[in-house]
Give the backbone structure.
Amino acid sequence: MPKNKPKRSAPTIDMTAMCDVAFLLLTFFMLTAKAKPAETVVIDTPSSISETKLPDAGILTVLIGSDGKIFLDMAGQHTRLTLIDDVNSRYQLGLNDEEKMKFANLGSFGVSHSQLKKYLDLPASERSAFPSTGIPVDTADVNKSELADWIHNARLAQFRMKQEGKVKDEYVMIVKADKDTPYPAVQKVINTLTDINVNKFNLITSMEGKAEKK
């Protein structure tokens, strides 16, 4: 008696659920992602053959433009809020909560304490046109140097955030100068760092290529 063999067919997988999940994730990231703040100063770094990689987070960066003006950028909203609270209190800047939050979400900045409130009150689209003079530096008296004050207190704020478990690491110090920056401007920054006992920092360069091995 002949046996009936069942008809064989290729298995199929319903991808509807997977497509739904993919679109849900895409929508979530589009709605929650924050645009990176526009660069206040464009830095064209010198080239080198260094392959040292920097961390993706926990960076405190001093930027030096080709005209020698100095800007500062730091990662971490919690740290920036703690920092601006302290600076606002000590220097009586008169910043309100909205202006403090603007600072927390700000990119790099290069204004003096006296100009900060006016700078933050501007719409984001107009800040690039603000007549920035850079962060003041005083190498003769470190106690009068606003750059030294910002860096010192930013590192303290990050340390407190680490103690509270809000961040993992202390700041990695970075100096990023333009290839056309006058050397005295870079030397001012290095002298400021050594004056506040920051003896370990990284100089940013762009990749030129690997050196030939002999």
